[in-house]
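Input chain follows. Return structure tokens only.
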Amino acid sequence: RYGGVTQTIRPPANPARFNEIDGHVQKNEISVAAGILRRHLEYFAGEAAHRLRGKAEFKGDGNFVFGDLIIGATSAMSEAFKKGKEAANSWNQQDKVAVITTRHEVFKAAEQAAKLDQWQVNASIHWNPWADMQKADFMPVVAAYRTFTDQFSCTSCSAMLSITPTFGTKQELRCDCGASNINLNAKK
């Protein structure tokens, strides 16, 4: 308990939400799909920022929005990839440097694609006379966000990646099964 509120660790973001979103897109219910996608991304951004120890500007009312949290999460992920490459280089683990470099490049590309499509989510939630999106318009938006959010998870166990420990000096970026494990400690 903290400040009278019970703090719980929530399960990772639910990929089944994308199946629900896809169902609405297939029925051409774009505003419904956009609303569910936006709500899911707000949840996801908070969870990713928490697990990656991402920084967000403090708000006394606790009213954090998607943009506040996803910036902290993506910055923390990129920083972990950079530190992981530095650490692997210091230990002369060039194979790991190559794997981390590739993963970081894929992450950056997915992040950029999602940023380009962000306006379409917001425009589709609210009534706009100029934004009447159809299934073909919105399918790439959903695909971009699915790819982007997938970058925060292990390819083996699908668990969201986390920085460990949860406070103090950051030691590693890892998943639950250990298949995705990036050391953040450079050789002294």
